[in-house]
Structure formats: C-alpha cells, structure tokens
C-alpha cells in the first residue's frame, strides 16, 4: 500500500528551546523525516531559538550530529540543514526579539508557528513577547507540550496566560499519544465499521483495561518526576485521552471541536475514584530503586498506579474501566483491552469452559489490533473450544511503505502546519482532566498514603492484582 505524501504550504516554524532534549531528540528528527518524505517545501524555514550562544552554522552542526542515525537511512541532510536557522533569544531579555521579528516580517500569508519547547513557567512570558513584537497575529499558531499544569489551578493559569494573546483556535496542546497511528485507527475501527459499535456498551462489554507499561525508570527527569508521579505524568493526560477515545459517543463529524466536545463529555462523566480502588507503587531494587533514582530516600511519589473508575452515562453505567501505568515494569507495552462479556449460555456444556472475546488495541510496540474469537479446537475428541486471535498487525498489513508512515511527532507537527486541531487537546478538556485528578491526589495526600514497593521488572505491586481479583477479574499480561 503506497502512502501518499501531500506537501504542506510553505511555513515558518520557530522552536523556542531549540537546543533542548525535546527539540533535538524529537521535533527536529520528526521534521527531517517529513523533509525526506517530500512533505516540507524547500522555502520553509525552521528557526531554533534558545539561550545558547550559537550561530546558524554551529546550530546546523549540532542538529546534523543528532540526525546522524537517521541519515543512515538516506535522505537529503544538507537540504534540510539549509532550511534551519538559529537565533539567540532569552525569553526574559529584550535582545534578539527585534531581529526575529524582522526575519519573520513580510512573509505574507505563510503559516507561522511557534513551538514552546521550554518549561511551562515560560509560556506566559513567551506569549507576551510574541505579542509585543507583532508576532501574535490571527494567523499564528503556538504549540505547547505536557505537562500542561500540575493541577487545575496551574492549568487555568497557563490557559489564561495563553488566552491573553491567542485564541483557542491558535493553541495546539500536544499529547503525542493522540498522534499514534493506532489511536486514529481506534476511531476508524469504532466508527468506520458496523461490527463493533452496537456492542460498544455496558450490555456487552464487561470491562475495559488500559495499560501503559514502561521498562525505563525516571532517567534524568528525577527532580521533575518526583514532584509529579505517575498520576500527573501519565494518567491525567495520556491514559485519560485513550479512555476518552474508547468511551466517547460518535461525533457527528470527524472535526476538531466535534471530537473534543465528545471527549470532554466523557471526562465530565467520570466518577470520583474511591480510595480502595487505587493502588500506588514504587519500584525497588538494591541501589537502583526509585528513591535512589530521584535522590529522595523518603519519597512518597508513585512510579506506578492502577485504579478503577466508572463513567456515569447511559452507555457505560456498570462497566468498570481499569487503568494502570508504571515504570520499570516487565515489558514496554501500551494496550487497550476491551473485554467482552461471556456468551449468556454455553450450548457446549460446562467442559467447554467460559470464553469471552477480547479486542486488543496495541499502541506500542507492534501497533495493531487483535480480536480474540472462540473456535473449536481442531481434531477429534468433541467440542473443545479455544480462543484464537484474528490479528491485524499494521506492520504486516501496510508493510510496503512502512518506513514512510509518519510517527506521532511527525503527524502532529504537520497537523499544526495544516491547521488541524483534531488531535490536540482543548483547554477545557485539560482543565476537566485536572478537576478529576486533583481530588484523587488530595485524597491520598490527606491519608498519608505510602506507595507499595514492587520489584524492578515485575508487573507492579501485588495489590494491583487484588484490585482485579476482588471483582472476579484479572489483568491481561504485559507482553512486549
Ligand atoms: P531541556 O531542559 O532539555 O531544554 C530546554 C530548552 O529551553 C533549551 O533549549 C534552553 O536553552 C531553553 N531555555 C531555557 N530557558 C530559556 C529562556 N529563559 N529563554 C529561552 N530559552 C530558554 O528541556 P526539554 O526536555 O527539551 O523540554 C522542553 C519542554 O518540553 C518542557 O516543558 C518539558 O516538560 C516538555 N517535554 C519534554 C519531553 C522530552 O522528551 N524531553 C517530552 C514531553 C514534554
């Protein structure tokens, strides 16, 4: 299957924090891959802006070094470096701004986008500077990253600071999970087929499991992570977005606000989470545990969380949603499992056992969708039933042009340039997610909850298994 690449219009993209990990490790490689795929026109401009004392050439050298592994796969690196520029700018200082404004002036109706790849504490000042230098016109777009606040109050402040200079239609809040191929396929499967949607409710779905398991620890982000924890770092944004897409009503059209309206309704219908429906954990290992990694021997921050919640609406009343995410787990695996109910009556007798369909939507690795169906075990010996997967692996199904398929950052950055906000979070969504998250965190802080230890490389604390067992259910395995 040949993927079609439609070039975007010429654009100027300024990356504030252009020397940082995100810019160098994700944004610029994504842009290079889109360049290599022929999607970025030759007169586009990408301007890195940061505090480091670099010029165009030394910035290009820095980026070229970071792109070396990519270039192995071919591509016109020099051409790409040719659209790169650098400006030394400190958000807190006046220097550099007039020069940037002059560079961007007179570009007519070219798209102008500003990627705020800096700490969220700088968003307000950055927006103000852009406005002051005439760079916040109606046509400009700003891109902001997670974390979008650390609670409802701080998210509101960020929204207010951005709204002072930009309309909601100009603000692109990235959650890179939304850019994943499978996440969009989840919507295609749900709303493009007749097969699933009639069953997509509490009458047929027993429960839904959302797992985002990581094998990595906190890495170099210890200080940030210890102040955040898995609930703020993963559940409030990534898992919440997946929950919304799996649970929302069909929007009338696949359009930004229609989709985001439906997601917002899901978040607002979420029940508060009861204390005994939450399991928090911290990974442990002699000399290499969580507390050592963050340099805080008394830390009570969770590197793992499992919880059960309900959506109080007609479709989902009675169907629990189990969410779990953690670091240093047995395998890297992000998957949504829709667990259907058993058939109401087995005509094959008790010895055939109980069988239920499972629709697994794998986000990473090996993106794909599997439906487990029950069939007769081949051979003689009566009616023995087995569950076998009907597997749709994207890597196989769409193999031919696999390397050209954009990853999440590539797709999302191109969406910014195209002006398509469908896969970005709206301000009210983010606030609603915090409004649900805040009381949960406040609850365990008030109770003085201490996370349960779990072994490096395990599936998490044993209490998470109990959370399921108490309901007569069990987690699907965490498989790579
Ligand atoms: P980083 O510390 O590596 O880089 C920060 C960048 O901001 C540098 O280029 C620095 O020069 C610039 N900067 C700092 N203060 C500045 C100032 N006053 N004026 C102008 N530039 C200034 O950080 P990062 O990892 O690149 O993260 C950037 C943002 O993206 C953060 O908000 C982070 O939470 C978020 N984020 C990062 C990742 C990631 O993979 N690194 C993933 C998701 C979200």
Automatic annotation (TrEMBL):
<dbReference type="Pfam" id="PF00479">
    <property type="entry name" value="G6PD_N"/>
</dbReference>
<dbReference type="InterPro" id="IPR022675">
    <property type="entry name" value="G6P_DH_C"/>
</dbReference>
<dbReference type="InterPro" id="IPR036291">
    <property type="entry name" value="NAD(P)-bd_dom_sf"/>
</dbReference>
<feature type="binding site">
    <location>
        <position position="214"/>
    </location>
    <ligand>
        <name>substrate</name>
    </ligand>
</feature>
<keyword id="KW-0521">NADP</keyword>
<dbReference type="InterPro" id="IPR001282">
    <property type="entry name" value="G6P_DH"/>
</dbReference>
<feature type="binding site">
    <location>
        <position position="327"/>
    </location>
    <ligand>
        <name>substrate</name>
    </ligand>
</feature>
<feature type="binding site">
    <location>
        <position position="51"/>
    </location>
    <ligand>
        <name>NADP(+)</name>
    </ligand>
</feature>
<feature type="binding site">
    <location>
        <begin position="90"/>
        <end position="91"/>
    </location>
    <ligand>
        <name>NADP(+)</name>
    </ligand>
</feature>
<dbReference type="GO" id="GO:0004345">
    <property type="term" value="F:glucose-6-phosphate dehydrogenase activity"/>
</dbReference>
<protein>
    <recommendedName>
        <fullName>Glucose-6-phosphate 1-dehydrogenase</fullName>
        <ecNumber>1.1.1.49</ecNumber>
    </recommendedName>
</protein>
<keyword id="KW-0313">Glucose metabolism</keyword>
<dbReference type="InterPro" id="IPR022674">
    <property type="entry name" value="G6P_DH_NAD-bd"/>
</dbReference>
<feature type="active site" description="Proton acceptor">
    <location>
        <position position="238"/>
    </location>
</feature>
<feature type="binding site">
    <location>
        <position position="233"/>
    </location>
    <ligand>
        <name>substrate</name>
    </ligand>
</feature>
<feature type="binding site">
    <location>
        <position position="176"/>
    </location>
    <ligand>
        <name>substrate</name>
    </ligand>
</feature>
<keyword id="KW-0119">Carbohydrate metabolism</keyword>
<comment type="function">
    <text>Catalyzes the oxidation of glucose 6-phosphate to 6-phosphogluconolactone.</text>
</comment>
<dbReference type="InterPro" id="IPR019796">
    <property type="entry name" value="G6P_DH_AS"/>
</dbReference>
<feature type="domain" description="Glucose-6-phosphate dehydrogenase NAD-binding">
    <location>
        <begin position="14"/>
        <end position="185"/>
    </location>
</feature>
<keyword id="KW-0560">Oxidoreductase</keyword>
<feature type="domain" description="Glucose-6-phosphate dehydrogenase C-terminal">
    <location>
        <begin position="187"/>
        <end position="476"/>
    </location>
</feature>
<comment type="similarity">
    <text>Belongs to the glucose-6-phosphate dehydrogenase family.</text>
</comment>
<feature type="binding site">
    <location>
        <position position="146"/>
    </location>
    <ligand>
        <name>NADP(+)</name>
    </ligand>
</feature>
<dbReference type="Pfam" id="PF02781">
    <property type="entry name" value="G6PD_C"/>
</dbReference>
<comment type="pathway">
    <text>Carbohydrate degradation; pentose phosphate pathway; D-ribulose 5-phosphate from D-glucose 6-phosphate (oxidative stage): step 1/3.</text>
</comment>
<feature type="binding site">
    <location>
        <position position="180"/>
    </location>
    <ligand>
        <name>substrate</name>
    </ligand>
</feature>
